[in-house]
Amino acid sequence: MNTAEALIKLLEEDGVKHIFGHPGEQILPFYKALKDSSIEHILTRHEQGVVHAADAYARSSGNYGLCISTAGPGAMNLVMGTTTAFKDSVPLLIITGDNDYSKKDEDIFQNSPINDVFKPITIKSYHPDSSKQAISDLCEALAILHKWPKGPIHINLSRDILLEDIADDFDIENIYDSFGSAVKDDSGPNFDDFSKSPSPKIDGNIDLIVKKLQSAEKPLLLVGNGVVWGKAIEKLNVLVSKTWVPIATTFHSKGIISEYDKLNLGIVGLRGTSLANYAYENSDCILVLGAKLSERTIASCDFEYVQDKIIHVNIDEGCLKGNINLHMDVSDFLDLLLNGIDSKKYKHEDFIFYSEWIDEIYSHYEELIVDGIDELEENYIPLRPPYAINKIVNAFKGSYFLSDAGTHTTWTVLLSKNDSFGKLLFSGGFGPMGYGLAGSIGVAIAHPNDQVVVICGDGDIQMVIQELATIKEYDLNIAIFIIDNSQLGIIRQWEETIYDIEKYQVDLVNPDFVKLAEAYGIDSMKVESKEDLELAIEKAFSSNHAFLADVCVCEENIPLPKK
Question: What is the pTM of this model?
Answer without folding.
Answer: 0.88
